[in-house]
Amino acid sequence: MKVSGLLFLEIIFCVGLLIAQSKTVSAEAKVLYEGDSIYNHIRIDQDGEERCMLFGRYKDKRQTCINMSNPDVSIFEYTGMMFVGFLFHPDSRDVALIGLGGGYVPSVFSRNLPSVRIDSIEVDPLVYKLAQKYFSLKATPMQTFTVLDGRQYLKKTERKYDQIWVDAFNTDYIPVHLTTKEFLQLAKSRLTKNGIVVQNVHNANKLFDAQVATFRAIFSNVFVFNGKKSRNAIIVASDNPLYKPSNFKQSLKNRVKIGEINLKDEAYKYDPTLKIAKTSVLTDDYNPANFLLHQDH
Amino acid sequence: MIRLYTVLIVLLLVFGAAIMSLEILSSNLMSPYFGGSVYIWGSIISSFMIHLSIGYVLGGYLCKRLAKLYPLMALLAIASLWVMGIPNIHPAVGEFLSDKIMDVRYGSLAAMNVIFFIPITIMAMVSPYVIGILSIHKKASGLSAGVVLFISTLGSFLGTNATAFYMINIFSVSTIVRGIGACCFAASVIPLFMRIDRKLKNV
């Protein structure tokens, strides 16, 4: 038996990897924090004025960043794009945000939408802790934070929202139970009369088609905004939207800018001729979301 | 002789695969009601461990008492039928328990036990039962305890990967669960017609 030889080789291999890895730690940005939660490997970097929360280690470059001297700037295109929700429902009072990250969204609310209540829901307790410590997030009567799975929160809450924002997805892993018809049905039941669901997605893979199809199975109106600089897309869905893209001019009369975000620019990203491939609706029972995610168009 | 060994090896492979395939699929059964957090994996793995450990003890005990294979086959047939019914019972169980138990940890733990206690405990009896049978009828047994565990674990490996990598992308969860139930049912009922216990005397 050559088992002992194999074991020996494996030990040599691992030691070699350790040595190789210790030499490749980059020194570009200053690392403020690095550690592991039950869900993520999290690092907080400071590079000049930009402070970022990075998830994963090497391949998954998901991150959320804030410019410390001008925190209203949306460093990533999609975070600004999500605010198109205010074109559909300009006088929103209650917003739920599923997926907190570094807390860019609630911080924009606190400075620029002080009369809008926002309830943020984050599944990872460490993300919330770090967002408080490094991104100066604070619970106030208008800003609440709940550490819980997003679907569980919606199931248990008795509140109704004008807007429910879903931003809970990694670039390489999707929590499947937040993509299904049943989840959207639940979200819909927590909306006010003209309420909308706003979801951040990626439009470069086949999951996008399936997500649009799933939204269309639940909501009578589904709108898609495509990023100009990124492959991010925003899906907005509602049964009775107050405004539709055809009368955005009217809703823009109320408000054009939210901090540094120009809603007029975001409105142009609406895709009126959206074509999706024929695909099946995602359900709790049949859900190949993580498979479709890795299949390009 | 060869027929007996074939039956035993198929049993070990099929039920080894079924246990792990169901374990992988339980995350899809639990997450709509209890979320996709690490807690549900804690519930899934810990409850399977409990079912396995009880099954091991029961399997060894029953084998010693009965010294025949057909009672095991009959129990496995019951477990298989239960598995085929899981797609029908799990929404009601998930809905009820997630309403009654606020803490998702204990809610999912309770749901896992309600749904899986009976089938997994019975399925876990296969390895110790087979080892026991072989040691009772040992004369020229080619299957040592180690080889029995190897075959069953090989089945578990195949069940885990086939489910997580491929089946879940092609079929709905309820179709896979019913399919597993049907395969298990076939694997436990067909040997009943093969007079397998008579073959044992010749071992």
> Which secondary-structure class do the elements of chain B indicate?
mainly alpha
Strand order, biggest sheet of chain A?
A: 7-6-5-8-9-11-10
CATH classification class of chain A: Alpha Beta
Annotated CATH architecture of chain A: 3-Layer(aba) Sandwich
Considering DSSP H and I runs of 4 or more, what fraction of the residues of chain A is helical?
A: 25-40%
Distance between the termini of chain B: 7 Å
**Oligomerization:** heterodimer
Compute the number of strand runs of chain B. 0
Give me the strand/helix succession of chain A: HEEEEHHEHEHEHEHEHEEHEEHH
**How many strands in all of chain A?**
13
Coarse morphology of chain A: globular
Give the low-pLDDT segments of chain B: none
Q: Main beta sheet of chain A: strand number and arrangement? A: 7 strands, mixed
How would you portray this structure in words?
The complex is a heterodimer of chains A (297) and B (203). With 297 residues, chain A is of the alpha/beta class. Chain A is built from 11 helices and 13 strands. Chain A is globular and about 75 Å long. The model of chain A has no long low-confidence stretch (mean pLDDT 90). By secondary structure, chain B is mainly alpha-helical. Chain A binds chain B through residues 38-39, 123, 148-152, 155-156, 175-178, 180, 182-183, 283-288, 291, and chain B through 28, 31-32, 34-38, 87, 98, 102, 104, 168-174.
Topology (elements, then pairings):
The complex is a heterodimer of chains A (297) and B (203).
Chain A: H1 3-22, E1 30-36, E2 41-47, E3 50-55, E4 63-67, H2 77-81, H3 85-88, E5 94-98, H4 104-112, E6 117-122, H5 125-134, E7 143-147, H6 150-156, E8 161-166, H7 181-189, E9 191-202, H8 206-218, E10 221-226, E11 232-238, H9 248-254, E12 257-258, E13 261-262, H10 263-267, H11 289-293
Parallel strand pairs in A: 5-6, 5-8, 6-7, 8-9
Antiparallel strand pairs in A: 1-2, 2-3, 3-4, 9-11, 10-11, 12-13
Helix pairs in contact in A: 7-8
Chain B: H1 2-34, H2 38-66, H3 70-100, H4 104-123, H5 126-136, H6 145-170, H7 173-189, H8 196-201
